[in-house]
Amino acid sequence: MTSLRGEDKITLLKLARSVIKSAIDKNVKVIRPETATPELNNKKGCFVTLNKKGALRGCIGTIEPVKSLIAAVEDNALNAAFRDPRFPSLTVNELSDVDLEISVLSPPTVLEYQDHEDLKNKLKPGVHGVILSKDWRSATFLPQVWEQLPDIEVFLGHLCQKAGMADSCWMDKDIVIKVYEVEYFSEKDTTFH
Fold it and tell me: Residues 171-191: pLDDT tens digits?
């Protein structure tokens, strides 16, 4: 996976914050790049995560590369701030307490495995983002979730629950597992905020 330049990361973080601020206060201008690098114009999957004082405050993304990275960050920043069904819309009073994180995804690939023991051996905690799906149900965890759920069975059990299935569903033979990797960066990692 190719790495974004530091300037591109700052551009995306400024864009994400400004689009959220602009949605709250119409007098705030969205800070879009005047000229975008090819990396920012490439179609990429991405997630925007809002953390408030270390706790999740919103996270929405697109797994498949259907839009340019700039457009995906802009859309997902708004969705994470105002349309994550787990949280109320972000308010102006919370904005200064929120740290934005952007995860840029590699295209997901199906993970081939023989049985649930083989699956556990092939997953790379901290590296793989995981998509678990069966029929119409599907859920994903970014690689960063391994920090809270380092045990593979617990990680997969929570992912099953997120998809609305029993926490042992990952052992079913008809479950499809896809994996992807991410490059993630946040405002707390940069010096501009």
Answer: 999 999 999 999 999 998 765
Model pTM score: 0.89
Please give the Cα distance from 96 to 170 (Å, whole number): 39
In the Cβ-directed half-sphere of 188, how many Cα atoms lie within 13 Å? 12
Res. 193: pLDDT tops 60: no
Domain locations in the chain as residue ranges:
6-105, 109-180
Q: Contact, 74 vs 47, CB < 8 A? A: no
Own/partner contacts of 53-60, CB < 8 Å, gap of 24 or more, are 53/97, 57/87, 57/90, 57/94, 57/98, 58/84, 58/86, 58/87, 58/90, 59/84, 59/142, 60/84
| Residue range 109-180, CATH number | 3.30.1490.150
- The tokens describing 147, both together, are 């920090």
The widest CA-to-CA distance across the chain, in whole angstroms, is: 56
pLDDT at 192 over 50: no
Architecture label for domain 6-105:
2-Layer Sandwich (3.30)
The Cα 174–Cα 192 span in angstroms is 47
Give the full edge-to-edge strand order of the sheet including 55-62: 55-62, 45-52, 98-105, 182-186
Residue of 141, 156, 147, 149 lying closest to 103 (CA atoms): 141
Segment 133-155, tens digit of pLDDT: 999 999 999 999 999 999 999 99
